[in-house]
Amino acid sequence: MSGNPPETEYWAVKDGVICFTSARTPKECYRLKKDKEDYWLVHPDTGAVHYHYTLTPQ
Questions:
Q1: Fewer CB within 10 Å: N-end or C-end of the chain?
Q2: Which of 35, 39, 37, 36 is nearest to 49 (CA)?
Q3: Is 16 exposed, middle or buried (0-12, 13-18, 19+ CB in 10 A)?
Q4: Is residue 38 part of a domain?
């Protein structure tokens, strides 16, 4: 993010769920869903979409 110094993040995958942690942010876990060029990171228990990305050719 702009204006913030770089920080180290750690991640682990277990049972199809990816979890991210760092010293400044709480642990976040998501399940990755994909359809064609779209990707979603969804909450593993509720299925709520937290992030949505679409890949486009450059």
A1: C
A2: 39
A3: exposed
A4: yes
pTM score, two decimals?
Answer: 0.69
- The total domain count for the chain is 1
Please give the backbone phi and psi of residue 31, each rounded to the nearest 5 degrees, phi first. -110, 135
- Angstrom distance (rounded) from CA 30 to CA 18: 5
Amino acid at 14: K
Instruction: Tell me the CB-side half-sphere exposure of residue 26, using CA atoms within 13 A.
Output: 1
Q: How far apart are the first and last CA of the chain?
A: 22
Q: Residue 40 is part of which domain span? A: 31-58
- 7 is a domain residue: no
